[in-house]
Amino acid sequence: MSPAAPSPGATSAPPDLLRRSARRPLRPGRRRTLLRATTELLGALAWGFALLSPLGCHGALLEGDEAAEGSRDDDDDPNAPGGGSCLPRIEQALILLDELAFVSSLRDLLGPAAIEGRLAPDVYTKTFARKGYVANTSVVSTRLEWALHVTRDLPQEAAEVTGCDGTDATCVRAYLEDFAHRAFRRPVLAEELDDLMEVYAQGAESSFGDGVQLAVQAVIVSPSFNHRTEYGSPRDDGFYELTPHELASSLSYLLTDSLPDPELLAAADSGALADPEERVLQVRRLLERSEVRGSVEKTLLAAWTLGNLFGKVKDPGLYPEFSAALASQMYRETELFLEKHLWGDEGLSSLLTARTSPMNAALADLVGVPFPGSDPTEFVEVPLPPERIGLLTQPSVLATLSRTDSTSVVARGLFVNGPLLCLPKIPSPPEDAIAEIEAQLEHDMTERERAEARASTSPCNNCHNQFDGFGLLFETYDAIGRYRTTEKGVPIDASVDFSSHATFDGQYADVVEFAEDIAERPEFVQCVTRHLLVYGTGEESLGRDACEVQQASDGLTGQSNLADVLEAIARSPALSLRKEDSAP
Amino acid sequence: MKTYSFSRRSFIGSVGAAVGLIGLLDRLEAQEEGNPAPRRFLMIQRPVGTIFANWWPTGTGSDLSTYELSRILTPFAPLRDRMVVFRGLGLPAGGSAGGGHERGTVLMVTGRRAPQLYPGNGGDDPYAEGASVDQLLLQSSSVLQDVPIQSLQLSCDRRADTPGEVSPRHLSYSGPRAPMTPYYQPLEAYERLFGTLMPGGTTSDNLEALARARAGKKSVLDFALRDLERMRTIAPAGQREKLDAYEDAVRELERELDADPRDPAFCGVDQPPDVIQVSQRVDPYGGANVSPERDDEKHRRIGELHLALVKAAFRCDLTRTVTFQWSPGTNHVSFGGMWPPDAAVFKVHHTTSHNPETDDVREFLTRIEVWYAERAATFLQELAETEDITGRPILDTTLVPYVTEVSHGFSHSWNDMPWLLFGGAETGLRGGQYWAHSGGRPSSATGNNMRSTNDYWMACGQAFGVPDFVLGDDETMYFGPIDGIFA
Asked: Roughly what angle, to the nearest 10 degrees, separates helices A99-110 and A169-184?
């Protein structure tokens, strides 16, 4: 693609972007969106920003554009994967398991009791940028401490665990081969097994149990256990196809944050996983387990940054009903909601458009609907009032994306722009601009007045015009998600007209109309695909517009569910093909 | 070059002859023969900045002894002649991203621009783009090296504003984006420090058990090294650095196993510390800044247990580089007895700092600053009164930066950072000084004609035989080491 001429109209969005829309929005069916966020135009916009607005959002836009562009510059090759439009750009890599993956793997190797008693990593935030993660003494020392911890009872239990009586070295060797096979997620070399038996022999000088304990510790501290590889085998075209064992690990850590289960490992051992359709079958099989679906649900919640709800505090004077307990109930509502809507026939769009939601009595009260259940602690599916729809108006989302004592147009706007739709990234504001705008913002201004002040102040408006409008749609919900119609005594108008927006179009009376609209847009499903593909590959630089994401989400719509997305990822070359490592 | 005057006889007299101590004695004698004396680096952080009105001492000139110390500095009065007060230091925070406390913490310890944010994590959590000052000093100074534990990271509270935040929770980085996780649980730090040593003393039974335990750990690490060799043969060239990093870590842990078998009791800790229920997530408190329970007492207990380990480790020369963090800058600890209108109201430190700046809030924050100052001053007094294995007061050879990530919590200002520097005679610090920035080119990343905090750190290199120590990505981040604070 060649960069188009700069587009001044798009780069200098006028300050009236956030003005109340003069006319009522069209009916949803006719209010068809003008999707301007095509990759071509994005490139043009990026150039416009780069040339015209030195303090603006251009840096991040270029970053996204670069990511999308690199592959398209390559000549089309009919023999290349994906019809030649998307040559592999993700390089071969050695990936250090993060602490969640490490500890989950220990749990699955040795049983849940083994990891009890040490602070396990949080599952509410997950690491999406794994490629930059490197070992240091602190990391390896922690892994050694875990190894000592999880093997603390092994000397007593060795006979039971290994099925050996301690006199038969062949039996121990067979146990260790099986253990290392599972831990390394690949066949074990004879040489490796010899080394492990040496470790065992050292401990066995004291006792059989000590020997088993030491050998198991050695596996846990080893780099083979602590890393997974994406090296692949060379193909004729110079790219690398991940081995079945590498694919098993990729899929398993994507879906479960842990090592492959026996069936997946067996599919790698037999070579069956080299076939994309076998990968799809394995994904389907794994997704039958609720804990696997739960792990993916947590990944999506983390991508949407909703785990941050657990750190939220609210002003008790303004929000006396808010507590950590209520926050966890809010989160629970969203978890249950995802369980119901991510996997069903109604497709991912139902996440945004569902008109019921599971609530307990406290949440129903907060939302302002009667609670139909008999037990107030029980979560019951409750019809939503007309001002609520789907995920976006759930208290968990609204409270997470608010400040202690007020809503946050900026946080909510950035959420829609980033985690929800994967529109171009927004850089942090320059310090001097913050000081300047803070001087202008008065204490008694409404959120809309503040947004308007940002929209009419350069350089703030360069970026804020891209996302403040999204945030304003949510203004009718306060900092803990209660519905409100006034702010500081002024009636709230949550309508927003995006017709001057750089990368998004539409006019909405409120967030309900907005949710109904974006549920049908490709950006939403592509963005979900992007999050999971990034989680699976550790390649955080992939934007929604990257060809890998476009390719994987090709054919997916709002009617697709999350299993469809994961199956598409399992088939996608982005998961299985790598470019040669470029040595620094 | 300074050497130890050290009497083998008096040392053996003080601890009793024990088999395992021979190696240690040999090392001490080597020092006496002209090898450089050890130095120690102990960064002590406290969160949320200060209240200027109650921080600055009153007086003129550079002689601190003529000043009247402020309320917050009064606890340090006995250490006045080993202390430098700085005025006019600014954090070079320009060109970086992230929240006030988050960015402040990264800039404070790395002095490098941090323009990239972690995805998620509240959207204000910057990556550290370089190693931290403690690790850089350690890498470049021989007088900090050659100890069983290269460096130790301790923190007294894990809670930050979002569960996954990195920047506010770490003071040490081994390199770009490579945080070194602190110990929160004193017992875990104890096991790291003394796990290779000898509870119960160096009896021959114990020595045998220890030898077995060490041999076991060594064979575990040895397997890791063999595995690394094999992995190296198949790794693409660009990935070998990651294996190198793993290998460096394994080798460092191996060296820890070579430590002399000393008795923790001799080092000053005869019992492992209590297990503390370290808070895992934000405690349930009902609102912005009032908690149903106080946790300053637990906070204090964790701090004291950690610091007792630091003293023991210094005493036995197990480590020479320590970063000690009271809490992330977004401190979630709730303090009792501190809220002026009602001592029974337990207010949370950080969130209260963002209340309107009333007299009550200022007084509350001042009291907490005094509380942290008292803890630090008490500990530094202990270091002044405790002898290390050479018979010299620990503080004599210890440089102690006393730092925080913002200056004024209300506004997240990074100007006029309320930092102190303590150091005993051997560090060369010219204590008893009031240093004020009096011109000279400030760095471009520092606002309002402030002298960059990197210049403070660069001066610290002089205590460790690294006069040309540099911190920062380029000259926009620093001017040069502050003159005149080291002899």
From this structure: 140
